[in-house]
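#struct-pred
JK: can someone run the complex with 2-oxoglutaric acid? inputs below
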Amino acid sequence: MEKAQKLVDFDGEVHYYEQFIAESRAEMLFNYLENNVLWTNEKVRMFGKLLELRRKTAWFSLNGDNYKYSGVEHIAQKLDYKLENLRSEVERVTASTFNSYLLNYYHDEKDYMGLHKDNETSMQKGSAIASVSLGAARTFIMVHQTSQIQLQQVLSPGSLLVMKGAFQRFWKHGILKELNPKGPRINITFRLRKE
Ligand SMILES: O=C(O)CCC(=O)C(=O)O
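RT: done, structure tokens with the ligand placed:
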């Protein structure tokens, strides 16, 4: 296994493995997930109104629990064996355990994810979040809350990014919109929620 690059080393940690899985496997997994997962448009509640975003999501949890964030309930889908195999591999490399995963589908350069923290109270405190990228390479941005330091990392297909320690307390993260055309991308974030 390749050595991780350390992208953040204060107020939390972020580690990046450029080639966690081979590009050919990342491509096969992308095609499989694109066609075999039930994708629904992401919704957010803003000023009391429900807005539907272009980006699609899918939610999986080992105990079948739904996931509520931004005022919207995400319904758990039946577990998938390819994602379960990937979860085991991610757990081995990160020496962490996960009991759920959120998938994001970005159609093109216009889909993005605004700066946010994954610090819902339903998350196990201090647990890592591990993120596998498939499809088009996109830019991940991290902004430190008090210093406003900004870091960026292009996430290649087949890469693994791990956010841990106090990162969710002190940093926000997101995926940038792009001006140049981009193909579709799928991201899988493995999480540990309180049971
Ligand atoms: O698509 C990505 O790589 C980031 C996903 C993310 O920030 C999230 O699911 O909270």
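RT: quick notes.
The CA atoms of residues 173 and 183 lie 21 Å apart.
DSSP finds three helices and 15 strands in the chain.
JK: thanks, will look after standup
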